[in-house]
Amino acid sequence: MAMETAAGTVFYLDREPYKNEKPYFCCLPPETLQGNPPTNHVHLPVAITASNIRGNTAAFSLEKNGFEVATQDLSDGFSYDTVKTGSEAEERYIREMEVFLTRKLNAKKVVVFDVEVP
User: How far is CA 47 from CA 26, 41, 50, 79, in A?
Assistant: First the structure.
């Protein structure tokens, strides 16, 4: 079965400018920067082809592809409506994901630092 594909562009940080200075982004108000740029990021566009992997997720692994698809059954009480930023459900969700990923990746420690709920 052929996978559906879509062409697109992703942007990566260019390595060259950062041989002497690390990449930075400053979140201060522009007037406090005294004319200095808020970032030194230089991005390079790279053309990619993205594939729809539905139905073929088992063919991908973290070791071979840099990502894999994993499933996790969540405890009761989680939904898009209950897991809102700053909610008790968000905290429980984060803890549950940290436990799941620690086991899945055989890691010493996992820290979930952001949860995006549409």
Answer: 28, 19, 10, 36
Q: Where are the domains of the chain?
A: 1-58, 70-118
**Per-residue b/e over 67-101, b at no fewer than 16 CB within 10 Å?**
eeeeeeeeeeeeeeeebeeeeebbebbbebbeebb
Per cent of the chain over pLDDT 90 is 53
At 25, the amino acid letter reads F
Residue-wise pLDDT for 54-77, tens only, equals: 999 999 999 999 899 998 888 777
What is the spatial distance between Cα 16 and Cα 20, in angstroms, rounded to a whole number? 9
